[in-house]
Design brief:
101 residues; mainly alpha; 0% strand
Length: 101
Amino acid sequence: MPSGYSKRTVVIAAAFLIVGIGIGRMIPQPAPVIPPSHQEAPPRNPAFPGRNMWSPDIRHDPYVVQEQMKIVEQMERECRIFKKNCALAGTARQSLIDDAE
């Protein structure tokens, strides 16, 4: 062989490669996480603040609405102080009002 490796070395390397692939296929793989298929979210645990991650509708999730309200208030403050993004702040506020209805 012109590459400097003997035929025996190449055969041994190929054998180890095949054995390694076989062992790798036998190792159990983690199953994908599949969310529950039910429509109703389990009750929220008050000990854990944040979004109810099993809620099928995030638009009406109290945590998400609270965070969106903080952003809208910051945009309105920027509008009052710097006179920037006033139209965007108004549109964002109206969007929150529309979603609440």
